[in-house]
Every structure is written in structure tokens, then in C-alpha cells.
Amino acid sequence: MTDVLNFGQMLAAHARLSPERIGARDLEREMSFALWNARACRLANALLGLGLVKGDRVAVLAYNCIEWVEIYAATAKAGLVAVPINFRLTGREVRFIAENADVAALIVQDALVGVVEEVRADLPIGDDRIIHFGSRPAPAGFRDYEALLAAASAREPGQVVLEHDPWTLMYTSGTTGNPKGAIRSHRGSALLALTTEIELGIHRKDGALLVMPMCHANSLYFFGAFAYCGGTINIYSRANFDPEHCVRTLAESGASFTSLVPTHYVLMLGLSGAERARYDLGSVTKLMVSSAPARPDTKRAVMEMFPNSGLFELYGATETGWVTFLHPHEQFSKLGSVGRECIGSAPIRLLDEDGNEVPDGSVGELFSRTPYTFDGYWRLPEKTREAFRGDYCSVGDMARRDADGYIHLVDRKSNMIISGGENVYPSEVEQVLAAHPQVRDVAVIGVPDGKWGERVHAVIVTENGTSLSEAALAEWVKDGLAGYKRPRSFDFVRHEDIPRNATGKILYRELKTRFAREKV
Predict the structure, then answer these.
(1) Residues 150 and 17 placed together within one structural domain of the fold
(2) Where is the AMP-dependent synthetase/ligase domain (predicted)?
(3) What digits encode the pLDDT tens for the residues 256-290?
(4) Where are the beta strands (DSSP E) in 298-386?
(5) 478 phi and psi angles, rounded to 5 deg
(6) Boundary-marking domain end, from 129, 160, 185
(7) Coil, strand or helix: which one is 216?
(8) Phi-psi sector, 79: left (phi>0), alpha (psi -120 to 50), beta
(9) Listed residue (188, 179, 173) closest to 76, CA to CA
(10) pLDDT digits 0-9 by tens, 124-152
(11) pTM of the model
């Protein structure tokens, strides 16, 4: 007997207790808890029927759609491990994750079949385990998702799934070029869901509109919280964000919560008074600003647009889950802070390079200890050891604590760029640019952007001062980098113009200060 129910078991409970209530919907269709549970059982049994065994990894490549909640529940029921893949990645990047995770099956949405086809010959998956869903029949060589479900049993699989078994393998962009797979257990995921419910004050009458990609930790973690308590999951299944459409969806769905990045809020605030007046947003009572800080004037405007809502912020990571929460009543008394520790967490530790705690007001590396911290990096024991000091975990963020105990971030994973809510690591972009035969040296930074918060900017040193155009470099990165990772602007400089320390390492902070000022 386990201490906590996993999400497959919790869905079965909702299907038994509230079978007719709407459990999930996207912009095309909706499912009661009973139907959701039955389809999740069918998918779980179908995957096991293909020869998958407990612990096997199932990769998923899809835009936001209702199938995500079926897949997450099915893998939980079958004891399989979901490997969500960012739909913005190129074929090369998808292949790396599939090979690194040694996935046993891949489920792909019709609109992304082309990405799979690019690298299909190199994927470590048999044709009978590449599963297609979408608006048209499966292409030749792909299994049909709906046909698999129709042929499978709707009974609970009966698989013994323990609380410490892994449920998801979430790949995070790596500072050394390749992403790392963060292992998260059923127990950790359930405890994170319960913590989220407490911090936000949500219950079964609440509903969430999930706008962030379902392949991201943000939507997965909020999905877990609302699914756990029996709230309705509304998935914003539109490929491109449309501010008026999103506002209309919020109003029509009756959702009480959504999590958006500052860019989304800025776009929504850009709607005219007449456009806003068309929609009643009174049902929205909780809003989250996630992934990047919002300006004070943006916060005030959001609160005016959603008069019945409280505004939350948080700090967390794929590995740690939520670390801090900033609640509505603290928004303007603690501007610039990400709040304090979540309920049930140990006090945050801010450590210097020698592992000593720094005094309040000083900057140190942030270490947290929560009941839902990840179980380590997939097949990277050294990286796992580096992430922990005892039971405390760090993802490399630097922060300071004020006299009231509130945490203020100083650097985001040292050099990480946050563009439109997406994390971009300079080293990954630099590797692709450095492979160009005319590039001698390169440094990638984020510079301010009014729409996206930051945009990726590349500082280039060419070989022997040869001429190289921005257009040529933009074309060069197309095949190797997802769109959001590609530089939007370039500067060509001399080698000595890139600041370095005594050991030759680039001083990114100094470089960013210089070019950010020049690009404003």
C-alpha cells in the first residue's frame, strides 16, 4: 500500500465519485472524468500490449491538446515513464532526447510528423511503436492512436506502481550544450500537487486554463494540482497565442486560474477597451506570473483588467518544483522578490563557493529542500551529485535574502536567457554558431526586448576579420536550433572586445551589461 495515490489512481477515484463532471477539455472536445479514465486505461493497456514493460519510456511530441492528459494518466496507470518533448525542437534535438532516454515508444501529433520523419531512420524505436494522432488517418508506417485505443480494454491495467517509481523524465536545456533528463517520481509529483493546492487555495470547483506548453514543467505541475483535487483542466490548444482569443477562452471556459509569462500579459493588456469589454472575466480569481519577473506597472494593469483576481508569482525549476511563492498581498510591499519558501519546505540556504551560508543581503547560490525534489539526472550521476549538498538541491541560481526572509534572484542559472518564457542557454547556441567555418569565437547573451522580455543576441568574432553577414548566420542555425533559440540580432567585434577572466572564461555579466545598454 502506498502513502499517496498516483495520478492514474486519483483519476480513477474521480471517475468513480464524479463520473459525469467535466474533467478535461481543449478547444475541440471535452471529456467527463469517466470518459477520461476509460481512455487512459485503454491507452495504458494498448502500450503494455505492444510489449512495453514497467519503467519503459514513452516520448510525446505534440502541441497543446487533450491527448496530453490521457497520456500522462495512462503512463501513470501502466507504470511507464512519460518523456515530454518540446514541440519547438528540431529533428536533431528530438533524436538526441529519444536516444538518450532510450525511449520504447513515441506518440506524435499529426502536425509534427515531419520532424519525426527527418530523423526516423536514426530513432531507437520500432515502426510498430511510433503512434500517430491527429485530424487525419495515420500515415504509412505509423500506428493509429484511436485504433489502438478502440482495440484495448477499458479496465484498470492492474499494474503495481509504487510511489517512488519514476513517472516523468523532463528534459531541461543543458548549460554544457545537451539537455539533461530530470527524473520525477509519483510521490514527488503528488506532493507537489498538494503543495500547489495549499499555496493557491484551489479546490474541485476551480478550473485551470493551461496556456503554457503541456511539455513544460509549468503546465505539467499545475495540471497535476488541478487533476489531483478534481478541478477541470482546460487546455489552450491554439498553436499561436492570440491575446483576444485567450481572453475569450478564459471568459467562456469559466476557468478561475491561469499561469502566463509577462509577454502574454503585455499582449493582453494591449487590447483596446472595447475588446476587453466584450468579455466577463469575473470567474478568474487567481493569476500566476511565471518564468520571468513582471514590471510593477504591468502588475497593476493586470489587476485592473482582472478585478476579482489575486496575482501570484513563484520561483522554481523542473528539478526542484516550486521553491518560493509570492502571494497577492505581498506584490507591492516586496517588489522584486520571488517570495518565501513554500509550505512544507525547509528554510532556503544561500551558500558561498565554500558551502558557507551568506548573511542576509549578500548573494549566494540558492539551495532548497522540498518533499518533491527530483530524483536525479538520467544516467548522469556526476551531474546529480553536483546538484546536491546533502538533501539540498540547486540549479545554479544566485539570490539574496532580505531582512524579512524574502528571496530576491540575482542571476537566472547564471547566463540563462528567458525569451517569451522559454529558457535558452548560451552554450547550446554557441556550439552551433561556432561550427560555422568563418566563426572564430562567439558569445551569446540576452538583450532587453519590449515584447519578449529578452531576445537572443550573438557577439561574433570572424576568422581573420573575414566578412560574414547576419543573414548567412541566421540561415546557418536554422537546422540546428529551435526557433526560439536562434539569435535575432548580431554584433561583429574583435577578439579582444570579448571580456574574459584570467583563465580565459568569458565574463558574460560584463558582456551583457555592455550590449544590453547599447541595444535598449
Answers:
(1) yes
(2) 13-378
(3) 999 998 889 989 999 999 999 999 999 999 999 98
(4) 310-317, 321-326, 340-341, 349-351, 364-367
(5) -60, -40
(6) 185
(7) coil
(8) left
(9) 188
(10) 898 899 999 998 888 988 999 999 999 99
(11) 0.85
